[in-house]
Write the structure tokens for this entry.
Amino acid sequence: MYYLKPIGVVEQNENYTVLNIFDEFVEGLDGLKEGDYIIVLVWFHKNDSEEKRKILKVHPRGDINNPLKGVFATRSPYRPNPIGKYTVKIHKIYRNKIFIDKIDAYNETPIIDIKIFSEKLDCPKI
């Protein structure tokens, strides 16, 4: 059995998305600063059902004019494990709140991890 423990939740406001980190994980933010790029992993909790996890082919971007593709070849939220990934810039950190660019996650979306972006590790050489 696998166990995921959210480290915080997403909060949307007019200008930014705010990552609200739970108090027990705030110490893990040490070393992050304004201007850093981070990778944020979230759990698409509103798309999480047994039926939706079985969907393995989708029309990209939900457009039926696009031919069906396997979910691993798309950015669809319908997946066997509904994990979302965003690479974003930190605009501000205040206590347990990280202010980032807007992302398409709902309020209260569980944050499952944050990683510092590393060009060496995260950008393949083509």
